[in-house]
Amino acid sequence: VKNVKLTGDIKIVSTDTAEYQAPKIILANGTTPRKLGIPGESELSGKGIGTNAAIDGPSFSGKNIYVIGGADGAVKEAIYLAQFAKKLTIIHFENTLGCIAEFKNKIKQLPNISVLTNSRLKAVYGTNQIEKIDILSENDGKITTIEDEGCGIFIYAGSTPNTE
Q: Which of 35, 69, 117, 141 could be 74's S-S partner, Cβ–Cβ 3.0 to 4.6 Å?
């Protein structure tokens, strides 16, 4: 798309090869996953930090997996990832998960899922894989370091619309 005219009754979209006219135009620009902005996040992206459970999940079979987020999308992905994980921990900054009751009930039925509320992932460390992580307690500000070489982290902290 080279140009758009979105005023008036007929909208016009111009491309390199044609001009399209329509009474309505739908912009479907998608979203970009929100990052946490923590130390080690960008350096370990693709080396233990992922956002696509279907693609990256199987590579963590038999290892510990951490899912960051507590809304429907995060918990749904955690349920899926549990099939691969030795242990899966959901880390959520609020005091309760913000997902539907069906998902809450499902995670209670999966013995390898635990939920860590009032907590945030604060930093990740490693070079070619994750070696350890820092978790911040929202209750007392204490940071707990967990050594967990080769673990997987899936960040589901919302997304930003691609409207720019």
A: 69
CA distance 113 to 89: 6
Torsion of CA 150, 38, 103, 55, to 10 degrees: -50
Alpha helices of 17-119 — where are they, by DSSP H? 53-56, 72-81, 101-109
pLDDT tens-digit readout, 89-136? 999 999 999 999 999 999 999 999 999 999 999 999 999 999 999 999
Q: What type of residue is 65?
A: I
In order of their start, the domains of the chain are: 1-29 (no CATH), 31-159 (3.50.50.60)
How far apart CA 84 and CA 64 sit, in angstroms, is: 9
For residues 107 and 162, what is the distance between their CA atoms, to the nearest angstrom? 32
